[in-house]
Amino acid sequence: MTAHTPPVPPFRDRRLPFAKRVDDLLSRLTLDEKIGFLHQYAPAVERLGIDAFRTGQEALHGVAWMGPATVFPQAVGLGATWNTDLVRRVGEAVSKEVRAMRARDDRVGLNVWAPTVNLLRHPLWGRNEEGYSEDPRLTSAIATAYTRGLRGDHPTYWRTAPVLKHWLAHNNETGRDVTSSSVRPRVLHEYDLRAFRETVEAGAVAGVMPAYNLVNGRPNHLSPYLREHLRTWTDEDLLVCSDAGAPSNLVDSEHYFDTHEEATAAALLAGVDSFTDHGTDSSKITARVRGALDKGLLTEADIDAAVRRQLSVRFRLGEFDPEHDPYALTTDFDTPAHRALAQEAAEQAVVLLKNDGGLLPLAPDTRLAVVGPLADECKLDWYSGTLLHRRTPLEGLRERFGPERVRFAEGVDRILLKTSAGTFLHVPETDADDKVRGAEGALDPALLAGRTDLPPLTTDATGTELSLIDWGGGVLTLRAPDGRYLSVAEDGLVRASADQPGGWIVQETFRLEPHGDGHLLRHIGTGHPVSVAAEGVKAADGNGEVFEVVVVESGEDAVSRVAAQADVVLVVGGNDPHINGRETEDRSTLALPGHQERLLRAARRANPNTVLALVSAYPYAVDHGEVPALLWTAHGGQAAGSALARILAGDVSPAGRLPQTWYADDSDLPDLLDYDVIGGRQTYLYFEGTPLFPFGHGLSYASFSYADLTTRVEDGTLHVTFTVRNTGDITADEVAQLYTRATEPWVPRPRRELAAHRRVTLAPGEATEIAFRVPLSAFAFWDVARGRQRVAPGLHEILVGASSEDIRLVGTVDLNGEPSAPRPVMVGGLEAVDFDDQSDTEIVDRAKTSGDSVSPVAGREGELVFRDCDFGKGAAGIAVEAAGEGAVELSLGGGPVLTVLTLSPGTAGPYDYTTVSAPVVVAGGVHDVRLGLRGPVRLARVTFSG
After folding, report:
1. Using CA atoms, how far apart are residues 644 and 368, in angstroms rounded to an integer?
2. pLDDT-based confidence at residue 904 (cuts at 50, 70, 90)
3. d(Cα 835, Cα 597) in Å, to the nearest integer?
4. 883-890: average pLDDT
5. What are the φ and ψ backbone dihedral angles of 640, each rounded to 5 degrees?
6. SS percent in the chain: helix, strand, coil, step 5
7. 823-945 CATH
8. What pLDDT band is residue 450 in, cutting at 50, 70 and 90?
9. Residue 206: how many CB atoms within 10 A of its CB?
């Protein structure tokens, strides 16, 4: 007898297109199996030989949360490189490490949640470190490069499947799951959507993740823009993964729905395909889906649509063709090439902000004093992997200049904490075996943080000298002499048990609060004061111990001492990415922490040759008037210190450029929740003040000249060429930037807007011609009167230079765009959201599924302005579609109120719209229409009749 080989099911037949294979597999799944796929942790289907699958692997600047991996600079640092080729190579390296790590640990997922393309609109956003830039074009260029690296270059199979975060208009942590971003159509289309759109259209994106916040009154997990915009930008099936816990927020914190069945159904219908909720426990989500089906809120076809998009991504990842997956045997992990790339990226991210008198680069025989709280630190953030290698600035400089030429003072206060009984806090000795160390001697935070087997602090007659690090805002950390930070574990006992502050709730931060003749030491993570108990020092309920702070040596004295003995002082300041600004916590000020300001002044008093290096996840408003040299870099990952040392030594000329505006003062900033970048004159696009340092700014050790600008328009494209020459005496990079500006705009337009950029390397005397091709669509704005993009005719300036304010060449082009025309309001009426200007209003949801209305800000009287409205031969009546209570007032231009339309008080809900009409006399011709919103009215639409 001859054995028969069972036929290969179509979903296993690689000769078929993916779409047919997905359809076949979908038809073989039971309803329960498909429902199971909707949770982040999709179970295996053993009868079909299908493995379990998890959406979500953090990979923002290296593989995160899965142990040791190559750690690259923070995303904002990658943005500061302005180098798309470099960022593509970083993405490629990260995706190779994802594959290599998955080969030995199947918990590592191939659906990577990166990059973050939220625009850095507001520099106080706690997650500033995660974005690339305040500019949508630069953001999309860097994000596109990173996703291309993550995806790989095989025409069929993907190395990893990148998901963009966080859809949409998400730029605050304060109340992030309950606050609504009011985003008018022009801001939506010209700003917030653009970074997502251009990245998706580039073809290397597998999906997006909605943000926690609401937009125009509607949770992002119900965003109609997923259907109306996102899914129209590509022919690929895009996977939409919820953010963690956000599906439950629809009921629990946002109270947008009464039941979880309603909420889950609405999110699925809006386009959410994978629900990240309740950790690994999928039972709650699957029960909600089943309940929604039973209530008729969903159909099996709705579930099929979501599962189909999931399967599409899994097929592209090669899951069903393992023998043909070109990336299945990837082993590249912590290779010499990856280490060199981390070094290169860290070097390219350094921005030289100021260099008066040519203090930098440092001479080889410089005697250097290195001071400051970040001088001997290599900080990680929430989305970092565990360091395999690390170089702090101090280590890098000692390696580069020699240890005998580099003196160090951390500049933190050394203190003893004395109890009311006259004893002192004491850190017990720890056996060597308990000091778990990782690569290069670093204490391993993954093995130390939260440990309860180490001895807690006690008290004795002499005490242990602690380092007090003041991070500003009254927040401090305390460190034992061996480098371990004081931390509080689940049992409440205080131990020296952390390499760095970290964790979802940071357990290493404290406050010293004046109390009587001393201070309470309050643990911020628990809110409890520290007391001395029989079992050891503890953070617990009660009155707490009143401590006397005995200063053994002040940080300022230590800095002054070493600074006076050096040729040059390097003050290394900045932030810890887990303190005073991080996910869940916005910053409160641009100011540098007061302690660091005092250290800077002490260094400057002792030595005028003082260089300030800021290592931070965001901009500062720093008083640099008496500091001759200033640099900034984001936290640079494993090679941060050696990169900074090579820049300071002149081995590499700095060429990083600021990816966002550095403002001079908090008063320059809009309200954190004001998302109207146009009306609020925000970012370099609209800001009319004088920044501390402008967008695109960065100096070099070389000098560059620009010449020979030519411009022409041909076949719908602007062609720009110019020449850049290195007029200095060292090889260096220059970042040439092209901006555009409408000279006589019909509506408020950017002061200037980045159209293209290129980073080039030039030897001394070398010149290169740079050619940019800019589609004329880049000149378009969203015309609210037409509800679409439009290029206006007229003159536009072409600005070429080294930053948004350092313009070297100027040309003009005269575009044959589409001329403006008055709004035909007698025909189309007015959508309330399509205003030209407003005051004291916010956009709200017209219905739970789609549409926008406008309402006055609570307790204020709002106003909407619609310009150039064509009334033809005149109007005799007006009607408003509105909900709620209150009134709508109509006036023309600056004239008197012509009529008031009042909604009757009642019990109707916010989505129960009614039409109220009234007679009115409006003369023919073109007028500006003003609508006053009085009381809690929700205005959707206005129409006029003849």
Report:
1. 14
2. confident
3. 45
4. 95
5. -55, -45
6. 25, 30, 45
7. 2.60.120.260
8. low
9. 28
Pull the structure tokens for residue 888.
Answer: 């709508």
CB 70 within 8 A of CB 388: yes
Strands 546-553, 518-523: pairing is antiparallel
The CA distance from 332 to 879, in Å, is 67
The CA distance from 101 to 332, in Å, is 9
For residue 441, the model assigns a pLDDT of 40
pLDDT band for position 440 (cuts 50, 70, 90): very low
Residues of the chain with CATH 2.60.40.10: 702-815
What's this model's pTM, rounded to 2 decimal places? 0.96
Listed in sequence order, the residues at least 6 apart from 768 whose beta carbon sits closer than 8 Å to its beta carbon are 723, 724, 760, 762
Q: How far apart are CA 80 and CA 347, in angstroms?
A: 11
Query: Distance (Å, rounded) from C-alpha 460 to C-alpha 454?
Result: 18
CB 255: neighbour CB atoms within 10 A?
A: 10
Chain region(s) in the chain for CATH 2.60.120.260: 823-945
Q: Where in the chain is the domain with CATH 2.80.10.50?
A: 420-544
- Contact (Cβ atoms closer than 8 angstroms) between residue 198 and residue 238: no
- Given this model, what pLDDT does residue 439 score? 41
- On whether the CB atoms of residues 784 and 800 are closer than 8 A, the answer is no
pLDDT at 449 over 90: no
Q: Residue 932: enclosing H or E segment and its boundaries?
A: strand 926-934
Rounded mean pLDDT of 908-935?
A: 95
**CA 741/CA 812 separation, integer angstroms:** 9
For the stretch 728-756, pLDDT in tens is 999 999 999 999 999 999 899 999 999 99
d(CA 803, CA 795): 22
The 8-class DSSP code of residue 499 comes to S
Per-residue pLDDT averaged across 757-762, rounded?
A: 98
Residue 896: predicted pLDDT: 96
Which letter does DSSP use for residue 468 in this model? Answer: E
Which part of the chain is CATH 3.40.50.1700? Answer: 345-411+556-653
243 tagged catalytic: yes
Q: Which CATH architecture has domain 702-815?
A: Sandwich (2.60)
**Cβ contact 438:68 at 8 Å:** yes
- Three-class SS string for 209-240? EECCCEECCEEHHHCCHHHHCHHHCCCCCCEE
pLDDT score for 672: 98
Q: Which amino acid is at 575?
A: N
Distance (Å, rounded) from C-alpha 74 to C-alpha 60?
8
Q: In the chain, which residues fall in CATH 3.20.20.300?
A: 29-324
> In whole numbers, what is the pLDDT of the chain averaged over residues?
96
Work out the pLDDT band at 416, boundaries 50, 70, 90: very high
Q: Six-digit token pair at 2?
A: 């001859």
Has domain 420-544 been given CATH number 2.30.42.10?
A: no
Specify the CATH class of 29-324 in words.
Answer: alpha beta
> Which of 243, 273, 668, 845 is flagged as catalytic?
243
pLDDT digits (tens, 9 = 90+) for 452-502: 889 999 999 999 999 999 999 999 999 999 999 999 999 999 999 999 999
Buried b / exposed e over 702-725, threshold 16 CB at 10 Å, is: bebebeebebeeeeeebebebbbb
**CA–CA separation, 899 and 456 (whole Å):** 74
What CATH number does domain 345-411+556-653 carry, 3.90.930.50, 3.40.50.1700, 3.30.420.40, 3.40.640.10?
Answer: 3.40.50.1700
Burial of 133 (0-12, 13-18, 19+ CB in 10 A): buried
Q: Which residues pair with 930 in a beta bridge?
A: 865, 891
Span 434-438, average pLDDT:
45
**Could you tell me which residues are beta bridge partners of residue 470?**
476
Q: Which residues contact 183 (CB under 8 A, 6 or more apart)?
A: 168, 169, 192, 215, 216, 675, 676, 843
| Number of other residues whose CB lies within 10 A of the CB of residue 667 | 9
